[in-house]
Amino acid sequence: MTEHSESRIVPYTADLMFAVVADVERYPEFLPWVVALRIKSRSKEGAREILMAEMAVGYRALRERYTSRVVLDPGARTIDVVAVEGPFHRLENHWRFTPEESGTRTDFRVVFEFSNRLLQAAAGQAFEKVLLKMSDAFEGRAARLSGSKS
Question: Where along the chain do its domains lie?
Fold first, then answer.
């Protein structure tokens, strides 16, 4: 199993950062390796929105598709994702956006394990590089939406 946590202070509002990460349908436009995404269903639980999202990711000849349950809580500024179908034995990620004086503290945690050990070994080698590119992509998207040059 591979696990990673990170916390960044970014110069954007917590609401903007939540909106960028919550806008899963736009991921193919700016997230590396996300080649397609479709929302299979939407529902509400109070103020929270629950999505079932099917994502296709690819890198070189490797292509995988999986479905996740995404819980968006705008009031708490949290996003929780759990894979429910696909190549993962386990995949969870959790986002928290906390307003700070200089912007927003973005806390991110991911845990994943592929069902296929060979795939897990290959993914583990590229894991840090992928996470850095993804974090930068979310921050870059926030910069473009805010009109900032950061």
Answer: 2-146
In the block, tokens 């996003």 appear at 79
Q: For domain 2-146, give the CATH superfamily.
A: START domain (3.30.530.20)
Written as six digits, the tokens of 3 are: 């696990």
Per-residue pLDDT of the chain (150 residues; tens, 9 = 90+): 788 899 999 999 999 999 999 999 999 999 988 999 999 999 999 999 999 999 998 777 778 899 999 999 999 999 999 999 988 888 899 999 999 999 999 999 998 887 777 766 666 666 667 777 888 999 999 999 998 755
Contact 10, 17 (CB under 8 A): yes
**Could you tell me the strand order of the sheet in which 2-10 lies?**
2-10, 103-114, 88-100, 78-85, 62-73, 48-59, 34-45
Written as six digits, the tokens of 39 are 């929302």
Q: Going by C-beta distance under 8 Å and a sequence separation of 6 or more, which residues neighbour residue 147?
A: none
Among residues 70, 107, 75, 77, the alpha carbon closest in space to that of 92 is found at 70
Please tell me what DSSP assigns to residue 33.
Answer: T
88 and 116 Cβ atoms separated by less than 8 Å = no
